[in-house]
Design a protein that fits this description.
The complex is a heterodimer of chains A (393) and B (201). Chain A has 393 residues and is an alpha/beta fold. In chain A, strands 2-1-3-10-4 form a 5-stranded mixed sheet, sandwiched between helices. Chain A has a 5-stranded mixed sheet with strand order 7-6-8-5-9. Helix content of chain A is 40%, strand content 16%. Chain A contains 18 helices and 14 strands. Chain A has a domain of 207 residues: D-Maltodextrin-Binding Protein, domain 2. In chain A, 57% of the residues are buried. In chain A, β6, α7 and β7 form a beta-alpha-beta unit. Chain B has 201 residues and is of the alpha/beta class. Chain B starts with 11 loop residues before the first strand and ends with a helix. Chain B is 59% helix and 13% strand. Chain B has a 5-stranded parallel sheet with strand order 2-1-3-4-5, with helices on both faces. Chain B has 7 helices and 5 strands; from the N terminus they run βαβαβαβαβααα. The chains are: A alpha/beta (393), B alpha/beta (201).
């Protein structure tokens, strides 16, 4: 099959005769609520329908996920969007061509602050910024990976309130399951992480939710299904089958009557390993910020939303590059559009979406308005990256 | 300029990160027998960035499956001026996997239960590989930045030629003069010109 011209191969696939090159795939995941679609695709057997078997593999660190993707121990992974672009550009480590097959979820991350800060009146971005200026000391904030999504939400949020995350506060990386313990002993003032860890901070009485990620960017991209470009080139049919199985799982999870049972499955020891209650509420959009406010959030964690969640918009990929540049992780402007076109596998995704009757957006770009009022639509990435008042380069 | 970490006859100072202390005891003894000095042995959720800054170890050794790897990742990215070589140890002696990991950029792997006389050469190789990688990185960054500067100058020249009807040489001289007058670099002046033109677009 490898000798056959790719155009003919995709034609052969359209005729339904192209079998997966590899039938068993190991997909890495980190214990977080948004690993749900990968887990459900396997647990509920959506993978079998497309001739593959997904073996979810629980991983201990994002660095480990990256290394295992690069050295082939994992076929694909539930991985931070920004990390994929960090590896593509060789930020802080090896450089390798990567492939984003689909976005896995929108929303459902948050920034928590310690109860000590709450006692001092820092309950949101503005009051936190005021406290930092009024009572200077070394304030420490944690994210989950230097090029990842949580780092970018945290930096964006602090920047929106005029706080430089590199010069005015200390910023560190802490693995998600260690966030709460670190906050309890006073090692940090705040953190940005995926659920269930923000809900757990409230239950464990160490912190509260100062901002949700959907409040920073409504329907932001988050985790992706990632692999190396080399792997995808060798296994296009398997890659397409994985996307189709996970699209089916995503539809299933977004049917709200299935959400509680999904929460119960992923809370298990082999997946997120936490109590069911910490996961369920926010999966249903029932938010309590731990500071007297309760609401039904319309922009809760979504996995499908008629396919708008999963389409690998080029503007989403480019956004992470603009932020890497903004914060000096990239020293030079890359060719934003060219990099995103290379990484995001639009064609493969479209084939999978067509096959699963998932609606495909018309445009490869989308327009989003952020918490600070700026609009990102994929145009003029260079001036967008350089246009922030708070930035490192 | 970063000072390279030197493999030498002096004892290597090592920061060992491991949750299972009894397991690490074996590795610790082997390292000491190999002439290494354990600067510190810590478990998860210690203040790793602080420790690395304070101890400046020659090597950091940690378990491949340790969640603390991400903490160290931050050090590599944020404090680019003070990178330290990182060595993984693993309980799994599948040599193909280890070879693949080393190709992927991890400085070296130590397999659980390795004999002490074999440890020191591995550590030295790890440091040598790390220094090589750092040198390559610095050169690459320099080359990339020069390339991108040349591109900016080309674009700025193009703009001036088009808008002012100048020859290539005239455009270049105008740019160089502007740079000299402002005491800035040619690349910076070119970039500013390109950006302003884009803005007025």
């Amino acid at each position: 099959m490898s000798m056959v011209d790719p155009a003919i191969r995709s034609g052969a696939w359209a005729a339904g005769s192209d079998a997966p090159e590899k039938t068993e795939v190991r997909i890495g995941f980190i214990p977080l609520t948004d690993c749900a679609s990968v887990v459900i695709a396997s647990v509920m057997g959506f993978d079998k329908k497309y001739g593959i078997k997904i073996v979810p593999s629980k991983e201990a660190s994002w660095a480990g996920v990256r290394d295992k993707l690069v050295n082939g121990e994992l076929d694909a992974a539930h991985v931070l969007y920004g990390l994929m672009y960090g590896v593509q550009m060789g930020i802080g480590g090896q450089k390798k061509d990567m492939a984003v097959l689909m976005n896995l979820n929108n929303n459902g991350q948050a920034i928590s602050l310690s109860n000590q800060l709450k006692a001092k009146g820092a309950v949101d971005g503005a009051s936190l910024a005021a406290l930092i200026k009024k009572e200077p000391r070394e304030y420490t904030f944690a994210q989950t990976f230097p090029t990842g999504t949580h780092a970018m939400w945290l930096y964006y949020w602090l920047g929106a309130y005029g706080v430089n995350p590199f010069t005015e506060v200390k910023n560190i990386t802490v693995p998600p399951p260690q966030m709460i313990a670190n906050m309890r002993v006073g090692n940090m003032d705040g953190f940005c992480v995926g659920e269930p860890w923000n809900a757990r901070a409230i239950r464990d009485n160490v912190g509260f939710t100062a901002a949700t990620s959907q409040g920073i960017w409504k329907d932001h991209p988050e985790k992706v299904l990632g692999a190396t470009a080399e792997w995808v080139a060798k296994h296009p049919n398997t890659a397409r089958a994985m996307i189709m199985a996970i699209l089916d799982a995503s539809k299933y999870i977004d049917d709200m009557k299935n959400r509680s049972s999904v929460a119960r499955i992923i809370a298990e020891k082999s997946y997120v390993n936490t109590d069911f209650d910490s996961i369920e509420d926010r999966m249903l959009g029932q938010y309590n910020n731990g500071n007297g406010k309760k609401w039904q959030d319309a922009n809760y964690m979504k996995f499908y939303n008629d396919g708008t969640v999963n389409f690998p918009y080029l503007s989403d990929g480019m956004w992470f590059l603009t932020q890497h540049k903004r914060w000096g992780l990239l020293k030079e402007d890359p060719d934003y559009l060219a990099v995103a076109k290379k990484v995001n596998q639009i064609e493969l995704y479209k084939q999978a979406a067509t096959q699963t009757k998932t609606p495909i957006p018309k445009d490869v770009m989308r327009s989003s308005k952020m918490i600070d009022g700026t609009v990102w639509d994929g145009k003029n990435p260079k001036s967008y990256a350089a246009g922030f008042k708070v930035r490192q380069s | 300029m970063k000072t390279p970490v030197t493999p030498s006859e002096s004892p290597l100072r090592i920061l060992l990160v491991d949750e299972t202390f009894e397991h690490a005891a074996l590795l610790k003894r082997a390292l000491q027998d190999a002439g290494c000095k354990i600067a510190a042995h810590v478990s998860a959720s210690a203040d790793l960035p602080g420790l690395v800054a304070e101890l400046k170890p020659d090597l950091i050794i940690l378990d491949t499956e340790s969640p603390d790897r991400d903490t160290l990742e931050n050090l590599c990215v944020i404090n680019r001026d003070q990178p330290r070589p990182i060595v993984m140890f693993t309980h799994d002696d599948d040599s193909d996997k280890i070879r693949a990991a080393i190709r992927a950029g991890v400085s070296a792997y130590v397999v659980d239960g390795l004999k002490s006389e074999r440890l020191r050469p591995i550590m030295d190789v790890a440091i040598a590989r790390f220094n090589e990688f750092q040198a390559m990185r610095t050169n690459l960054e320099k080359a990339e930045s020069q390339l991108s500067e040349r591109k900016e100058v080309e674009r700025a020249k193009g703009i001036l030629m088009k808008q002012r009807g100048w020859s290539e040489e005239e455009a270049y001289h105008a740019l160089r003069k502007a740079a000299m007058d402002k005491g800035s670099r040619l690349g910076d002046v070119a970039r500013q010109l390109v950006e302003i033109t884009e803005l007025l677009g």
